[in-house]
Structure formats: C-alpha cells, structure tokens
Amino acid sequence: MRKELKLFSGNANRDLAKEIADHLGISLSKALVEKFMNGEIRVKIEENVRGVDVFVAQPTCSPVNDYLMELLLMIDALKRASAQRVTAVIPYYGYARQDRKVTGREPISAKLVANLLTTAGANRVLTMDLHAGQIQGFFDIPVDHLEAVKIMADYFSNLGLKNMAVVSPDVGGAARARAFAEELKRVPLTIITKRRPQPDVSEVEEVVGEVEGKIAIMIDDMILTGGSLTHGAEALIQRGAKEVYACATHAILCGPAAERLQSSSISQIVVTNTIPLEKEKRIPKIKILSIAPLIGEAIKRIHQGLSVSELFH
150, 164, 168: which is closest to 218 by C-alpha? Predict the structure, then answer.
C-alpha cells in the first residue's frame, strides 16, 4: 500500500470532490487553478506530493475545453512534483460521443483525449458510464469503469413502484437497460428504436415490447437536449403506459432541455451529480443522487490494491 493518499480537484465539480473527500475521511488537498489575464490556465500544487498516491477529480463537462486543460495541467504538475502515481478521476468523460468516424475526414476525439491524458502523465483513469464502453480500449493505461445502474435501481426499488417495465430509449443502450432490469429483479425490457435525421435530433420509429398498463422507466447514460426522453415518453404513453419515469447518469441539459423535460409527460427524472447542475436547471421533476460514496470506495480500493469490480457484486 502507498503510504499516503491525496485528492485534488479542478474547478469543474468541487462540491462532488468535497463529498468524495468526506467519504474517504480526508481533506481536499490544496491547489491553485485559475486563469491568467490572457485566458491561459494557471495551475500550482500547494502541497508536497513526493511519493504520494494522488487522485484528481475533474469531470470534463462544459466548458469542456477549459476543464480538460485544467485536468491535463494538474496531472503534469503533479508528475513534475514527483507524485508516485496519478489517477485521473473523470466522472463524466467529455468528447465520449465522438468515439468513431461517422463520415470521412472526421477526428476520433475520444481517442485523442485518451492520448492527451496519457501524455500528460496519468497512470490510471477512473470514470463512470462512458457513452461507449469501447473507449476503455483507447487507453494504454488501466481504466476502472464504474456504473450508476445499482444506485438508480436502489432508488426506484425504494419507491415501491409496482408492475414496472424498463425502457431503453435506443438500441445502443439495450445492454445498460438490461443490467438495470436485472437489478430491479428481472423487470421486463422494452426498446425504443429511433432515427437521427441530424445531430442532436431524434425521432421515434417503434416501441419493441409491452408497456400497456405498466410504469415505464427509461434509462440512458446522459441527457443532452432531452429530445430522446420526451419523445420516448410520448410514444410510451400512446402505447398505454400508466406512468413514465426517466433516469440518466449525466445531466448535461443543453439549451431548452430543462424546460422541455419539465413540460413533458415524464413524472420524474433521476440523475446523478457527476456534472454540477446549475440552479436554473434544477426543475421540480429532477431528483439528484450522489455518486460520491461509490467513487470514494473505488478510490479506496485502487489505493489499497483491491478489486474494484467487487463493487458490482
């Protein structure tokens, strides 16, 4: 075991970092992360980290480029200060939706970000609910991939809902929805097929499965514009669903997403605090669950050289 553990944070989600530190029973370590007058980011580590096992908590959410650069510079500073090991704790991995070339002459941005983190000096990555699981293979360093499925399932189990059906809002999320259904004691699974006529716009084509008279719970990895969930909820109600809930790990909520969700037929939207949610987006329908205990336990296990996968059993 390494003799000491320290947790640092950039500016992306300091509240979550403090919660993780509280779970670990330590104080959040001190670092100066600000901007020079010319817009460049300034980082200064204000504690001795020589020989220390260091973790840096920083989701790369909006403004993604600023927060990604903060993370890269912090990793570089920590390695130059002789930290024994640096683990990048990235609850939300920005650029994850750009994991392949859809048309010619496009970058694979998720792979480039993986290269940047490794070049900066990260020895390990701890992340949560990647948009595409294959992004783990973009790294040449160990990646621990956490999932919020059990946190969500525990919440809905405690609501005492009866006659539920788990719904994937698209074919790509079927595996996640199946795992969620298993956590809810083998609740039946329904899949919505959709098409995207243009980026960030979706249209429902068909609902595969039985939802009539059931309480439908849609699950996704992220909520961007809210279109997939609101259109999916409408399709489920039209097919006889008694009530519709939704849950997703990352509440990005771009543009009018919050207003769209509030005026939708969805009874409640359950998200986690991987990304800080601005006050104006905390609509009455949104319930925020904390992932701090899960990430804190994973950090503890990584530090002690124990299995992280056991957290899921």
Answer: 168
Q: Give the containing element (helix H, strand E) for 155.
A: helix 149-159
- Count of Cβ atoms closer than 10 Å to residue 145 Cβ: 17
Strands 189-198 and 201-208: antiparallel
* Angle between helix 149-159 and helix 174-183 axes, rounded to 10 deg: 50
Contact 77, 71 (CB under 8 A): no
Q: Are 193 and 206 in contact (CB under 8 A)?
A: yes
Mean pLDDT in order along the chain per 10 residues (313 residues): 86 98 98 98 98 98 98 98 98 97 95 98 98 96 97 96 95 94 93 77 81 97 94 95 98 96 98 97 98 98 95 78
Would you please indicate which residues are annotated as catalytic (active-site) residues?
A: 194
DSSP 28: P
With a CB cutoff of 8 Å and minimum separation 6, the contacts of 199 are none
Q: Give the global pTM.
A: 0.95
- DSSP annotation of 24 reads H
Exposure of 68 in the CB half-sphere (CA atoms within 13 A):
19
Of 176, 127, 130, nearest to 153 (Cα)? Answer: 176
Preceding amide of 63 cis, omega within 30: yes
Q: C-alpha 16: how far from its chain's center?
A: 12
Tell me the C-alpha distance between 313 and 309, whole Å. Answer: 8
Question: Which structure tokens are listed for 178?
Answer: 């199946």
Sign of CA dihedral 13, 39, 63, 98: negative
